[in-house]
Amino acid sequence: MRIDIAHGLFLIADGMGGHGHGDVASRVAVDAIRDHMDGAFRRWDDGEGLDESGERQNGVELRYSIHAAHRSVVGAVAENQALAGMGTTVVGLIVGNDAVAVAHVGDSRAYRLRDGELELVTEDHTWVNEQVQAGYLSAEQARSHPLKSVVTRAVGGDHQVEVDLREIPAAEGDVFLLCSDGLTTMLTDEEIHGLLIDEGSLDDRCQQLVDVANDKGGVDNITTILLELGQDSAS
Q: Is residue 103 part of a domain?
């Protein structure tokens, strides 16, 4: 996980691979994304690499950074075959002046709460979600399917990774949740919505999400980031 409030960058990587290799994959990926984005931030601060209107190219650089993470994870496996098979999901968000860029690979998710309505702004890259989209499984069947954790895209692996990117118009008061599948395996979207509309602080609501998921079984690592857009920044 990485939080860089100064630059509006928020990131979760949920590793997989067994025997601690998932931790290695997520750490390698986060470090690579951080290094790439730190370079982009320095260029932007110097007035370089901006678009024609002088704005940061948040989405473009976030996508590039995840490709860099993929190369780093693949390179780590090439250097140490004991790490073969490791990989990680990634979901990242950058806050801009007028829009929020969200990029992801795998089944870590991003949600937006606006005016009391919760929207899933990412789409799981999993086998069961593909079956739901094709009409072979219902959403309820997918939640309990034995293959629900099988991802079809990950950072690391044998092929070049495909990164989904979405640019979302930003509005003051928008609340964004980034989370690993350890949360969404235990809680439905309706349960997440009910906890997010609570009047507690962001810290309290974030902790409550984790606590309730653990109370319901907590069968996997649970990572969450909760942020709210202010007039000029995220908190």
A: yes
CATH number at residue 176: 3.60.40.10
pLDDT of residue 52: 79
The answer to the question of residue 33 being in a domain is yes
Integer Cα distance of 146 and 126 in angstroms: 12
Our count of domains for the chain comes to 1
Beta pairing partners, 89: 14
Which residue range is the domain that position 34 belongs to?
Answer: 2-228
Which of 143, 32, 166 has its CA nearest to residue 88?
Answer: 32
The 10s digit of each residue's pLDDT in 161-201 is 999 999 999 999 999 999 999 999 999 999 999 999 988 89
The tokens of 149 are what? 């954790």
Classify residue 234: in a domain, yes or no: no
Q: In what order do the strands lie in the sheet with 117-120?
A: 117-120, 109-114, 175-179, 224-228
Cα angle, residue 165 at apex, residues 113 and 101 outer, rounded to 5°: 50
- Which pair of tokens denotes residue 207? 């902790």
Tokens matching residue 71? 């190369």
Q: In whole angstroms, give the CA distance from residue 77 to residue 22.
A: 12
Listed in sequence order, the residues at least 6 apart from 177 whose beta carbon sits closer than 8 Å to its beta carbon are: 109, 110, 111, 112, 113, 192, 196, 209, 224, 225, 226
Which residues face 88 on adjacent strands? Answer: 15, 155
Residues forming a β-bridge with 13: 90
Residue 208 maps to a domain: yes
